[in-house]
Amino acid sequence: MKPLTGYPASPGLARGTVRLYQPWIITVDERAITPACVDGEEARLHDAVTASIAELERTKERVLDELKSSEAEIIDAHLTLLQDRGFLARIRDRMVTDLVNVEKALATEVQHFEDLLAKVENERLAESRRDVRDIGRRVMRQLAGNSDDHPLAHLPPGTVVVAPELLPTDTLAMDRQHVAALITEQGGATSHTAILARALGIPLVTGVEQITELVADGDAILVDGASGQITLAPSDGQSARFRSRRRRYERRRQRAIESSQRDCQTTDGRTIRLLANINALDEAESVSTYGMDGVGLFRTEFLYLQSDQSPSLATHARHYSRLAAAMGERSCTIRTFDLGADKISASQHRAQSLTGPVGNRGLRFAMENRALFRTQLRGLARAAARQPNLRVLFPMVVGGAMLRDVMALFREQCAREGLAKPPPVGAMIETPAAVFDLAAIIAEVDFLSVGTNDLTQYMMAISRDQADTYSVQAMRHPSMLRVLKLVRQVAADHDCPISICGESAGEPELARLFVGLGYTALSMSPIRAPEVHAAIAATSVAECEAAVTAIIGD
Q1: Strand 229-232, strand 4-5: pairing
Q2: Cys staple from 395: which of 61, 326, 338, 546, with CB 3.0 to 4.6 Å?
Q3: What CATH number is attached to the domain comprising 541?
Q4: Are residues 438 and 514 both part of a single domain?
């Protein structure tokens, strides 16, 4: 059969047999109730939520034994919502107002949150919708009295799980020792499932349309998580070629990991810095493991989303200081929070304490919520006073005027910590507005970082639901490469250092194109670094430039 192609979200090659997984479908027992029944229904909700929390706590304990705490924080987001009184109060209000049972009230509230998140222009919120759906499904299962093991908890060796989508609950509950690979119709490189798959070393291919209609339990299947290719019912010849390819892949990856300890240089001697995109302190070791040059992007959102309390000044300073110290002399770039009222309210329901339109993100949201922002900026200043390798990066910059206000605020916080001037600061170029106000932006900062995920979405009119899957492919479009060429040229004209940041930086072929465009720093998920290092080390700048010319012309 002709191979299928999806998006390679976690590398690796695997052969196995299909386990077709259709997520538990629980029919909502919708029925009317009388006012006298509300207390009884609320008691059922309390019992179901309590059981769900206990189940999650047990899962978290197991996960912490197997994974880094940053992956276990996925569970914390679920626990936060389940323990939020506002969430439970709204379900009760629906029972009182609509006089419906708890199952119907829960289903309505979950759908309400999903609909709110769907309206926000933020690709990462697609994952938040899945989290809310996952939580609702977990509680509904308890209400139905179904506390049996998850259908994926016990699997035979060599299982390839094929599903429409995999929610965090599915990935955490599955018998991962016997899972050879994962294939989904939905999801992308930044989904929680992809994060977990990469952490566990399980190949994952997403965005494979109608795969659940083409396979059945027990079918033989080949999965290439490096290229995204899927082969159903492979012939003897296809199986033999796949075995050879897997042996070559494993040898190549081992060599790449070993060679990544050396400087990344093209064959004609240009040095390319490979930087890490990480989410938590315990991922710092991966920078050394893969021989990377430092941290190009430390995402700080988890500090806000893992608790129902805003992080304190001490918490900010402690996290940033520890990470920068772990880098030694290597650079450590901390991005200020890229949040919106919608995102915080979805996990913590504290929107009433925040200001600004729901769709605001990045600096616009930060400046409208200055109490939160001042605390983070002061924490960064305090850490920078101790760690000279610390740099600060501002997300979703749209122009120089806003940056001037931000820098005035940052200088004020630095002065409070006894710093004569701020540490090096940078701007993320993620919007068309930033591209067209680049000179004004450069006047306010020390470096630039091109956020390819969001910039591609906005430039190429990619649906936020599909941005995870298609933004990397869209990066090859001539218009996108011309934009990147323009941005790099303006930065060079102003002698401003610039890097590429995003999932596309971790794609070897795209990395070559970026080198051909003149970029000398790429920031990516650490697990992608060995293949990128090997690809760059095997080519020359001239070859990279020729690849760009073939797409966009002279």
Answers
A1: antiparallel
A2: 338
A3: 3.20.20.60
A4: yes
Structure tokens at 351: 């929107």
Alpha carbon distance 297, 498 (integer Å) = 13
Residues 17, 40 within the same domain: no
Tell me which long-range contacts 408-411 makes (C-beta under 8 A, separation of at least 24): 409/367, 409/370, 409/373, 409/374, 409/377, 410/377, 410/380, 410/381
Predicted confidence at residue 353, as pLDDT, reads: 40
Contact residues for 545 (Cβ-Cβ < 8 A; gap 6+) = 516
29: in domain: no
Same domain, yes or no: 401 and 477: yes
Number of structural domains found in the chain: 3
Q: How many residues does the chain have?
A: 554
**Same domain for 264 and 132?**
no
Residue 453: which residues within 8 A CB-CB, separation 6 or more? 123, 190, 430, 467, 471, 502, 503, 504
Q: Which domain holds residue 97?
A: 35-143
> Is 72 within the bounds of a domain?
yes
Per-residue HEC secondary structure of 493-554 comes to HCCCCEEEECHHHHCHHHHHHHHHCCCCEEEECHHHHHHHHHHHHCCCHHHHHHHHHHHHCC
pTM equals: 0.68
- Domain assignment present for 30: no
Residues 227 and 200 in one domain: yes
| Chosen domain end from 103, 120, 143 | 143
Domain boundary among 205, 227, 246: 246
| Token code pair at residue 544 | 């990279």
- Residue 551 burial by CB count (10 A; 0-12/13-18/19+): exposed, middle or buried? middle
H or E segment to which residue 487 belongs: helix 478-493
What are the per-10-residue average pLDDT scores of the chain (554 residues)? 83 93 71 92 93 84 61 73 85 93 92 75 60 85 76 91 85 85 82 74 89 93 91 93 89 75 90 90 83 92 68 92 94 88 41 44 86 95 96 94 94 95 96 94 97 88 60 84 97 97 89 97 90 93 97 88
